[in-house]
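Case study.
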Amino acid sequence: MMNRREAMSAVAWLLGGTIVGADLLVACTPNRQQVNVEDLFKQEQVLMLDEIADTILPETNTPSAKAAEVGPFMAVMVKDCYTPAEQRVFTEGLGKLEEACEEKYGKSFLKCDAKQRKELLTSLDQEQKAYMHTKKAEEPSHYFRMMKELTLLGFFTSEVGATQALRHVAVPGRYDGSMPYKKGDRAWATS
Amino acid sequence: MAENVYDAIVVGSGISGGWAAKGLTEKGLKTIMLERGRNIEHVKDYVNATKEPWEYAHRGGRTQQMIADYPVLKRDYALSENNLDFWVNEKESPYTETKRFDWYRGYHVGGRSLMWGRQSYRLSDLDFDANAKDGVAVDWPIRYKDLEKWYGHVERFAGISGSKEGIAHLPDGDFMPPMDLNCVEKDVAARLKSHYKGNRHMIIGRVANITSPIHSRTNCQYRNKCRLGCPFGGYFSTQSSTLPAALATGNLTVRPHSIVTKVIYDKDTKKAKGVEVLDAETNQTYEYFAKVVFLNASTLNTTWILMNSATDVWEGGLGSSSGELGHNLMDHHFRVGASGIAEGYEDKYYYGRRPNGIYIPRFRNMNGEKRGYIRGFGYQGRASRDGWSREIAEMNIGADFKDALTEPGDWALGITGFGETLPYHDNKVTLDKEKKDKWGLPVLAIDCEIKENEKKMRKDMMEDAREMLEIAGLKDVKAHDSEYAMGMGIHEMGTARMGRDPKTSVLNEWNQVWDAKNVYVTDGACMTSAACQNPSLTYMALTARAVDHVVSEMKKMNV
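After joint prediction, the assembly is written out as follows.
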């Protein structure tokens, strides 16, 4: 069964290893129940997730993560797909991120400017990379790794991300295994 | 009563059941196909087939609820939002794992023909001779010449695309034009050919996706969404292929929600009279009668039906006289291989999502070579460029990071070995009468494992993969042996094997149950050995051959 081997390798490659809580990248069935994230995230926290995502993937010559509503997407994923232990790491992580922000700039993340936000999240990304290299397999991922993974997933599989930041053809109709490529051409959204 | 009488009964509607129904009805036999699950109508019921990833709340992920509901499916790729309704409800249909066995089931019209991997290879006499040569289990009662024309017969109708290669132990078939290798695969194939002096091959996969229209089916559109059901009929399934042909004869009745609980055996005639059916929706019991019964319920469920058909004549179930019913369960062991980076192709990419990859046919333990194990393995794989999910070690977040991810990454080529599992008598299934399913029926207990031969083979599967990729010039080659548990190959085979002697096999050379000659088993249960090729094409060919046999036997009044 060829498809599944590919699905597996795609998962294994997602950010080079562990993927938190989900086996992703392929299509799915409609959401079976009304998503209710309020008991896990306050509205302000969802806004904050949106801004975190937008700092990770800002607007360039293509739209930003916020344009793809990545913040609300993250909240849904954490609620539905994460284990309680992972949820705890994630929600406590939001608090840790705020604390780090207060310590560094004396104000909350939402009050910081774009440069400060980027600086903070860059240091958190360095922190998570170092942590992920040394952690034991059974230990949970770093909260910022979770946020980064969900941001990438939420953006690049969204309609905005897949069709504007990446390329997508619903029905290719043929296969060309040696298509010319030049630097700057966009990647396909799905394989 | 009369309305429950047919010429033929087919139990199951998957790959082999569909072929049985097509063959029997085209021969003019009034046939009923009994399917334990719901109906899935071609195109109309492929509810997710044209959806895009962003149309789903979790983008193809798995929720905690799904993980709780599908304790087996969650063990591998199969559990995802995209085709959850194609997999069995595990709460309704439990089984017992005496040892871990991952059993991935599809209980609906079409069975796993809707979700299958579609790789389609012929077996050869390297495979059919193997048990006799090695003194393992029992000899296959047939050889390649017995099956050759039937392979062609099913390939022409199903539509198998592939390349003719002239490889003796992987016989060419009646193929549609092959899909293309991509630029990296082509070069790697050429380097392997040159290094191994034509003794190892990397070829395009032979796949049941059509590359030109056939019957009312449109050729593959390179969407790579096969497992959602294909609205174009681009790949072979019961729904796209055998079922319409069978229905067109006017001789087929399909009855969904029909759990066949036993074959009704008549000890005076020593034949089956029909089958007993439990209606899965109403819990009513019905009897259906016919001159011939085809069991195509999938390997383990076919054996379950035989076991559950115990009588005072056959206490261990119909077909149990040899003591081999339920034994010799096999799968293909895999999840071991290697991958590496291909440099120098930065100015190349691909268009379209090819639902197929490369195949490296078996090369071990052939032509006199003797490794520390018997039999062999093949590889499947592909080359592609990394996408947005890759790690970029030197970057963190922000605009540059984002723009880098919107471009494709390195070319990588990965291969995974698929190894032959030997038929061990003690790898077996039995009825667990303590545990009951939703309908109060006893469930199967599965007790099997890979042994020394497979474990030794896995070392070669890993090291050969590493060596070939390094020889092909790939960089940063990494080999892996990930966890494998039996069943994960979704190639269950054996438990009602064919043989030459009723004392040591369940079926004869025509797939007839020795103990009741008008009962045919032509799904994976019949396999005497596993070979290392994907097995479904062989089930199709065996089924078509058995149908031809039963019709000639009926003419001779032997069945």
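Observations recorded in class. The longest strand of chain B covers residues 258-266. Chain B has a mean pLDDT of 97. We will return to this complex in the next lecture.
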